[in-house]
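Supplementary notes for students who missed Thursday's class. We covered one full example, reproduced here. Read the sequence, then the structure, then the short commentary at the end.
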Amino acid sequence: MSTAVPPLGRLATLRRYPVKSLVGETLAGVHVGTRGVEGDRLWSVRDLDGKLGSGKSTRRFRRMDGLLDLTAAYDGDVPVIGFPDGTRVRGDDEAVHAALSAHVGRPVTLAREEDVSHFDDGPLHLVTTASLRHVSRAHGRVVDPRRLRPNFVLETEGEGMVEDGWVGTRIALGDELVVEIVQPMPRCVMVDLPQAGLPTDGGLLRTVTDLNQACLGVLATVVRPGTVAIGDEARPAP
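Structure (token representation):
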């Protein structure tokens, strides 16, 4: 009789967000280092006082409406910003600052991460299809995982917040990467907001709040860097 431990799930979607708070790109595979997915949220839109453009205002961040209307994808190691009118501007083109400023209605610049981390709470965010089905049932309509801005969507069986039960454990993704699940992912108003390709979904934050104390998905840190690809299995790791 086999004693092999069954997989927790399989990597169904892999996403990276070259610029914080902009819509990102879907990948087939990527290297994950101690900072997280290579190039993830490495750039940001910055106000004149150095605060990072976000969907909320905090000590580090400043809410900037319109960022989710924009897309970002890498051309080599340079992000290319897509605007609603179809214009695309490279991040190494000086015109990008004026274009972003015009879009958000205030003077801003595009800048690479320096001393201040661009991450809200941690370097990796994953969510399972089981929890998405659970929230969708409570919400009364399908919840698109793009609203949650995860790095990994794991295809899992059943329904329920299964990843909450992984907090404090280590998971191997593929043959190389090992991560530690450190806490549930707190949600904010960004899940309700419209973004490129998705309309407003008012009430989603309230649904998640009522269902699971405003948490959906989990945050992870990297124990052992490695490369992952769509289809890789997730398994418990020692």
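Commentary. The helical segments are 95-104, 129-139, 204-212. The chain has a mean pLDDT of 94. If anything here is unclear, bring it to office hours.
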